[in-house]
Amino acid sequence: HAKNSGRNTFEVFRAGMNELIEKRRALEVDMDAALLNGEYELFLQPRVLARTAEITSYEALIRWHHPERGLVSPVDFIPVAEASGRIIALGEWVIREACRVLAETEVERLSINVSPLQFRHGDFHQRLSEIVLEAGVAPDRLELEITESVLIDDDQRALMLLTALKEDGFTIALDDFGTGYSSLSYLSRFPFDAIKIDRGFVSNCGEEESAAAIVHAIIHLGTSLGMRVVAEGVETFEQALFLSRSGCDEMQGYLLGKPQPISCLATSVSEAVAAVLTGLTAQERLK
Ligand code: C2E
Ligand code: MG
Ligand code: MG
Ligand code: MG
């Protein structure tokens, strides 16, 4: 009897695995078509200066308009693209599209997310330089967001690459700081221009004392190392107030603006938000 039920469990497991594998394979096939059919789009989310409420740049976040499934989240397809190597071609599309936006629109500065595999790929720096040069875009208008995981495996190579990219004029941000391994020594060893405090800490900093303490510590640490500190996922006035009082340089989040198609890009934040950040009402600010 036990043997039987064991076998049944395994059959169920195997059927489940097969289904997962099939789904993943279907997604991979669809991803190849998506690149050819132009189903990807970059949405832009504003990054706002805490002191003045001015929009200084935007983060490019990829969206997939799937012909049958509708809008697919990057959380669902970026990992699949990573695992199958498709992230290299997709990542190049992101760089090209970001450069097109910088060349053809009013947008001054953009951040793009670079996946670990893309960053480690031998051609990355050269392809990036070629695309940027071809588009006629100054490298200092493009910021590369990387996560700590790219620093772990071969930190000597990562350091050389980051240094070379910075010499070319690109700026580098450490994304999702506070998650993953978060070795503090990374911050002093690598030449980041900015660190982005992960949403997980930001969303609790208004209520939870421990999250508030961590946010404080990251701001102090980043600032004393000469890096800009950016808070991700700011959703409430309380969080914005706490962050700006704590000396956070920039903010990003639904409160300040959601990721939007380029055609409906906001160029300023709402008056209410601006008033909270600057501590002044609209009338006072006009004087
Ligand atoms: P990320 O780079 O950390 O981006 C921040 C994510 O938080 C985005 O999710 C953004 O839409 C979301 N977000 C922003 N403000 C708020 C807020 O106030 N509240 C909440 N709940 N969420 C907020 P999204 O667009 O789904 O992207 C998820 C992740 O997918 C990104 O995390 C990034 O790691 C990856 N990704 C997105 N676009 C690209 C891309 O072009 N290339 C690569 N390699 N990865 C990308
Ligand atoms: Mg990011
Ligand atoms: Mg992030
Ligand atoms: Mg993330």
Mind explaining what this structure looks like?
The structure is a single chain. 52% of the residues lie in helices and 18% in strands. With 287 residues, the protein is of the alpha/beta class. Strand 1 and strand 2 form a beta hairpin. Helix 3 runs parallel beside helix 5. The model has no long low-confidence stretch (mean pLDDT 91). Bound molecules: ligand C2E and magnesium ion (3 copies). The site of one magnesium ion has 4 residues, from loops. The site of ligand C2E has 22 residues, from strand 2, helix 2, helix 3 and strand 6. Belongs to the ammonia transporter channel (TC 1.A.11.2) family. It is found in: Membrane.
Q: Note the main sheet.
A: 8 strands, mixed, barrel
How many angstroms separate the termini?
84 Å
Uncertain ranges: none
Number of helices: 13
Bound molecules: ligand C2E, magnesium ion
Helix % is 40-55%
Q: Which class best fits the helix and strand makeup?
A: alpha/beta
Q: Measured on Cα atoms, how large is the radius of gyration? A: 21 Å
| Shape by Cα distribution | globular
Strand content: 15-25%
**Mean pLDDT reading:** 91
Count of DSSP strands: 10
Order of helices and strands: HEEEHHEHHEHHEHEHHEHEEHH
Strand order of the largest sheet: 1-2-4-5-6-7-8-9
Short description:
The chain is an alpha/beta fold and 287 residues long. It has 13 helices and 10 strands. The protein is globular and about 75 Å long.
Keywords for this structure?
single chain, 287 residues, alpha/beta, eight-stranded mixed beta barrel, 13 helices, 10 strands, 18% strand, globular, binds ligand C2E, binds magnesium ion
